[in-house]
Amino acid sequence: MPPKPKYTKDQLIDVAVDIIRADGIKAITAQSLAAKLHVTPPSVFSHFSTVEDIREAAIERTREIYDTYVQKGLSMNPPFKGFAMQFVQFAVDEPMLFQLLFASRKDDPRFEEYSLMEGHTEFILKAIRDTFPLTEEECQELYIYTSIFTHGIASMTATGACLFSEEETAELLGKSCRGFLMAIHAPEDAHTDMIPRSGGHVDRIDAAKYLRRK
């Protein structure tokens, strides 16, 4: 009978997550795990059959960590903005875990797949409905627009490209949301007729045209 492992399954997963925090998921190997646990490399397979199984468990634990941020955000008032703030905060606190979940190349990089992967669409849409007097289609639009904008702030933070204070993040999210709400109610042609063109005369933009409600 093999000797009883000196660590629990949860401890092994926690060590794997710590390795992701420091060096990314590819750094999870039998050797790196063994070094952290102070055991021999073969011993790390007491709870899992392969390194890939350990990596998958570490990803699942990462999702659980992210979920605590989501739940905190949705408990705030208003919950829609609370979620966005906590999405960014996750990137601030856990940049490598954020990049693992939200800034790595996907096999199917459509927004629909991103939404499924994020995993909280139903709750975010409910938060939007509870906050704004919008149709279901408009709620979907606002969800897509704000998700893309919020992801941009979080990605800049996680990669160290640009850092924002909590107050700056709140202001950026608030102003962008108001802008998206105005765009949703703007005339249809206003959504695309400001696409930049090469050369030609530069016209001044009639701001009132784009802020006018239907």
Q: Give the oligomeric state.
A: single chain
Q: What is the number of E strands?
A: 0
Segments where pLDDT lies below 50 for 5+ residues? none
Shape: elongated
Q: What would you report as the Rg, rounded to the nearest angstrom? A: 22 Å
> What's the average pLDDT?
88
**Any idea how many domains?**
2
**Major β-sheet annotation:** none
In CATH, the topology of the largest domain is named Tetracycline Repressor, domain 2
Give the helix/strand class. Answer: mainly alpha
Given the structure, what is the number of helices?
10
The N- to C-terminal Cα distance equals 75 Å
Strand content: under 5%
CATH C-level class of the largest domain? Mainly Alpha
H/E series:
HHHHHHHHHH
Give the helix level as a range of percent.
55-70%
Gross CATH architecture of the largest domain: Orthogonal Bundle
How do the strands and helices of this protein lay out in sequence?
Elements: H1 9-23, H2 30-37, H3 51-74, H4 79-93, H5 95-102, H6 111-118, H7 121-131, H8 136-158, H9 166-184, H10 207-211
Helix pairs in contact: 1-2, 1-3, 1-5, 3-4, 3-5, 4-5, 4-8, 4-9, 5-8, 7-8, 8-9
